[in-house]
Specification:
The protein is α+β, with helices and mostly antiparallel strands. Helices cover 22% and strands 16% of the residues. It is built from 4 helices and 6 strands; from the N terminus they run H-E-H-E-H-E-E-E-H-E.
Length: 140
């Protein structure tokens, strides 16, 4: 699958009909992964994500990370976040470019200024969590 289509974890068939949703955590446990080694996380929460990846990396046993938020590129998510664009306060920004390390296509650096392309921002908020100077906020 290439993504964005319904799958056993969504509770809908490819035809858009309601069906039974596979409980991925229960499936992993049934396959022998210890329950404490199955983490359900919000991938847009960087602290939670880092902790889960670190725990998985350090584990000597099978470890599964299941993300619970929909992809930011899904049409319904884009609509829901239409008014959640992020903006950089240029007075607080120290041009450290930490935000750009996330690889977000909305973040740009030109003429010594870091800025967010409003048309490309999907409002995920990852840049908000990365900025050490709290120079990024949601537009009001």
């Amino acid at each position: 699958m290439t993504g964005h289509q319904e799958n056993p974890g969504t509770g809908r068939t490819l035809m858009g009909e309601d069906t039974h949703q596979v409980d991925l955590k229960s499936l992993c446990v049934a396959c022998g992964v210890k329950e404490e080694n199955v983490r359900l996380i919000d991938p847009y929460d960087l602290t939670e994500t880092k902790e889960a990846v670190k725990a998985g990396y350090e584990s000597t046993e099978p470890f599964v990370i299941i993300t619970t938020s929909p992809c930011a590129l899904i049409k319904d998510v884009i609509k829901a976040r239409a008014n959640m664009k992020c903006v950089i306060d240029q007075e607080k920004c120290v041009k450290c470019k930490m935000c750009m390390k996330a690889g977000c296509p909305a973040l740009n650096f030109r003429d010594g200024i870091v800025f967010i392309d409003r048309a490309s921002c999907n409002g995920c908020g990852i840049c908000l969590q990365i900025c050490p100077k709290k120079a990024i906020s949601r537009e009001v």
